[in-house]
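Minutes, project check-in
Item: structure for the 211-residue chain
Input as provided by the requester:
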Amino acid sequence: MNQGNQFVFDAGTLALNLLNTWRFNGDHALDLLRAPEDVVTWLAAAGLPGDASFPELSSSPPNRRILFDETLWLRQDILLIVQRLVGGGLPPPYTVYTLNRILTESGTSFRLDSLITTSEEKQSAGMQDQLALNAHEHALSVLGVLQPIALSAARIVTEANPTRIRQCASGDCMYWFLDTSKSGRRKWCSMSRCGNRAKAAKHYRQQSEPA
């Protein structure tokens, strides 16, 4: 199975999606990020810039190793943050330092871009290219690649209702999610995974009970 196909992205926020690179395999916890290449694959599956915005990742194995180590440290700190929030506390100061350290490693540049991208469009438009001023985020270092994840974690700290940060109700699932439902009663990481299995198991128990 392709490693990227094992990743899930239905936690409702990027930081919790990173936490969900841990999952149960039978009775054992399985880490889906076991090598630098796994982190690069996860970033691509999450729709985050990697090699394209920071070419040194593809040309420098040491940079990939740094990214790997930093990702695992960030993931551990995000876990500590959400556990503290769910327990009614505040994030430990060193986890706040971790987020701030990463948040400062991304910059914004501005560029005038053409709104017309192909020669056919230019001919049909019959006029000079129209321009738009766009902001472009770029990593200042390897750490900057992780900036969207750190930003997601910072928004959990400052904006999320801690009672909406939950782990799946299934006893054999460790996935986290942010409940953004209107009712606020979401129990499962995904109905197509744990929710349907729980419903099927309940139905089986009911059918097996003596009349």
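Outcome recorded: The chain has a mean pLDDT of 84.
No further action items on this chain.
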